[in-house]
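Class prep. Write one:
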Amino acid sequence: MTGALIILGVLVLTGLVLYLFHRRDVRRGRALAPTRGPMQDVPEGEDSVCCGMHSTCEKDSLLASVSDKIEYFDDEELDRFAGRNSDEYEDVEIEEFRDVLLTLLPEDVAPWARSIQLRGIELPEAVRDELLLMVGEQRGEPL
């Protein structure tokens, strides 16, 4: 029992010391900002622009219009799905999207997603989830 009280006392004391140091750093403006990984570095002067290559804006940039350029990836046949809701696809149509996604080069996945969005096509929910997983794996992010 004495050993447990000693450990508890050390933990409380350590927590108190860390809290006091953190408060001091916050007052001095030196609190630690969230760190960026190697794939998340943003070139100076481009902090306000989301290019789609950083995990902080990954969902927004992949599924929203980042650029105005519509680029086709040998997938013109998908244009017939423009205006359809993501939950209205049949299994055969979902497989059509999946086939295109799985034949893309890794560096073409994010631009393809932006192109699909610009063309007014909603990805089927299952394919959208797979797309986000592929991009996350490509960037080395944990699942």
